[in-house]
Amino acid sequence: MAYELYYWDGIQGRGEFVRLALEEAGARYVDVARGSRGTATMMDYIHGRHGFDMPFAPPFLKDGDLVISHVANILHYLGPKLGLLPEDEKSRWFAHGLQLTITDFVTEVHDTHHPLGSDDYYEDQKEAAKLRATNFLKYRLPKFMGYFNRVVAANPAGNGHAVGDRLTHVDLSLFQLAEGLAYAFPHATRNFERDYHHLGRLRDMVRNRPNIAAYLRSDRRLSFNESGIFRHYPELDDEPA
Q1: What pLDDT digit, counting tens, does each position of 92-124 carry?
Q2: Residue-range domain boundaries for the chain
């Protein structure tokens, strides 16, 4: 039986962190909202028409009768099934903590272009967005990416992964962060490889994995755009990280 992934059509968004894990593992899955009546089906779950275990918002994953919401929860569930988590419990919980930290960072990325509210257009909050993005690039991006860079460097396995001695969903998510930041802030991240050497190597390693490389070439991988989390507005990309 194929996994069912529910997320908005037309954008990578938070659903992309789950897609990368499924694609890397060669798992069978259906991107439901991209099919006929897919969005309507997704909203039926959110409105509780399929039972009490209704998710608040996408992404969520359906595996048989089980419905799992939130990226970090989904990846914590999929990790052992897809071979994308270490075997020992201590490392698994550390990986989960890293994934939750990535979730925090993704929220901050989103808030650079929508600092006042998601329901208003970017054009209605450009001045506030400029202030938020300047602070983000000067303080928050280096804080988070510096931390992730140190995590990779400190891994006792010494093989360029974030946790353990083989690829995990955390590596895949760090790849997505690096790609998204390069799209949204090409000027500010122009020295990414110099500033975050270990993350740069991890990004390249993930990009060259056969299943990921094939996915990136396919039409299943949507392009970054100005409707997603990572958006490129040149006026927000003034200061180097």
Answers
A1: 999 999 999 999 999 999 999 999 999 899 999
A2: 3-82, 89-236
Residue in the structure block whose two tokens are 């802030």: 185
39: which residues sit within 8 A by CB, 6+ positions away? Answer: 8, 9, 33
Mean pLDDT, all residues of the chain: 96
Q: Residue 59's Cα: distance from chain center in Å?
A: 11
The second-level CATH assignment, the architecture, of 3-82 is 3-Layer(aba) Sandwich (3.40)
Write the single-letter amino acid at 220: R
Sign of the CA dihedral running 57, 24, 225, 98: positive
Tell whether domain 89-236 is in CATH 1.10.10.60: no
Residue 239: the pLDDT is 60
**Alpha-carbon distance 85 to 150, whole Å?**
20
Whole-angstrom CA distances from 168 to 43, 98, 159, 192 are: 31, 11, 12, 22
Q: DSSP letters along 158-193, please?
A: -SS-SSTTS--HHHHHHHHHHHHHHHH-TTTTTTHH
Q: Where are the alpha helices (DSSP H) in the chain?
A: 15-25, 38-46, 71-82, 89-113, 126-135, 141-154, 169-184, 192-195, 197-207, 210-217
Backbone torsions φ then ψ of 16, nearest 5 degrees? -65, -30
Per-residue pLDDT band at 241 (split at 50, 70, 90): very low
Alpha-carbon distances, residue 206 vs 14, 58, 84, 174, 224 (angstroms): 18, 25, 13, 9, 18
Q: How many beta carbons lie within 10 A of that of residue 88, not counting itself?
A: 10
Q: Are 55 and 69 in contact (CB under 8 A)?
A: yes
